[in-house]
Amino acid sequence: MESLVRKHLPNWLAMGVKRCISIPRFWKQVWAARRSFQKHGPSYPHPLLFIAGLPKSGTSWMESMLASYPGYKKVMPAEAIRHEQKHKGSHDYQLSEITFSQLQDALVVLKLHVRGSLHNIRLLREADVPYIVMYRDLRDVAVSHYFYVRRTPWHPEYEDYSDLDVEEGLRHFGRTLLPDFVDWMRTWRENRDREQSIELRYEDLLNDTAGEFRRVASHFSLDTSPQTIEDIVEKHSFENMSGGRTRGDQDSDSFTRRGVAGDWKRHFTPELKDQFKTHAGQLLIDFEYETDHSW
To answer: Shortest CA distance to 52 belongs to which of 19, 94, 84, 22?
Structure first.
C-alpha cells in the first residue's frame, strides 16, 4: 500500500514521504526483530545476516528467502535511505559505527549496497557478522536499473531517466554509475574476509537456485535440510513472485521485470558495447562473464 501511494505522487513529494517514514519504520522493524529474538534467538548462532550487493543484483530476492527462516526480520536503516536520496545512490554509503550495536538482541536480515571499503570490512569483522557479497553482470545491472528507475517516482534518479529511451538511459548509466559500480565489485573482491564471507553471482543463483541458496544457508549456519530449502526456493520462485509469469516474460512495471541473465544483448548497440568495454571490459573478464573483449 505504501509503495502504491508513493507511486502516484510527484517525485519530490514521494521522496519526502519515503524519508519521513524511514525513521519510525526502522524502529518498528527493530522492535519486531527484538521480539522475534526473544522467541527464536536460541535457535540461531548468527542473529544478524548481512547481504552486500549492487542494486538489481538479486539482493532483494536473497533477503526475502533468508527472512523466511522463522523469526528473522528485514531491517532498513533510515540513514541509508537519507544517504541514497542525497547522493542518488547508496553504493558509496559507509556503515555507521553504531549500525550493528543498534541491532543487538534482534533477528535481522540486513541488505545494503555498501561498498567493500576497509571501514565497512572492519565494522563487520569487529561485530563478528557473517556476510555474503552478491555480484551481477554490470550490463544486465544497467538494463534493470534503467527500467526500475523509470517506474519508481520516489527513486532519487527518476528525473534523470524519465525522459530517456533505453539507449540514452544505458549511455547515461555508463557515464555516471558504471565506473563506481566497477570499483564497488573490485573493493569487495579485494578486501572481503574470506573466512567471514562468501561470494555469490546472480547468474549462478538463477541457474541453480536450490544449490546456491543451500550454500548461503550453510554459511549462515541455517537449516539446510532438503525440504526447508525446497520450500523456500519454491515460495520465492519467479513465477510465484511475479504473479504467474514465466522467466523472460517481461512486465516493465513490475519489480520482477524479466528475471533472466543476458537481457543486455537485446538493448546494447555497438556504441554502448564500446562504452562498457572501456570502463568494465577487464572486470567482466576477471569475474568470468567474458573470456576476452570480443563480445
So the answer is: 94
Convert the pLDDT of each residue in 176-220 to its tens digit. 999 999 999 999 999 999 999 999 999 999 999 999 999 999 999
pTM (predicted TM-score): 0.89
Place of cell 573466512: 195
Q: pLDDT by residue (tens digit) across 209-268?
A: 999 999 999 999 999 999 999 999 999 998 887 654 355 554 444 445 456 889 999 999
* Res 254: pLDDT: 43
Assess contact for 93 and 156: CB atoms under 8 A.
no
Any idea which residue has 543463483 for its cell?
205
- What is the side-by-side order of every strand in the sheet holding 48-53? 73-75, 108-112, 48-53, 131-135, 197-201
> Taking CA 87 as the corner, what is the angle to CA 85 and CA 89, rounded to the nearest 5 degrees?
75
Across the chain, the runs of DSSP E, i.e. the strands, are: 48-53, 73-75, 108-112, 131-135, 197-201
Whole-angstrom distance, CA of residue 83 vs CA of residue 94: 9
Grouping H, G, I as helix, E, B as strand and the rest as coil, residue 76 is: coil
Rounded to 5 degrees, φ, ψ at 51 are -120, 125
Q: Pull the grid cell for residue 71.
A: 523469526
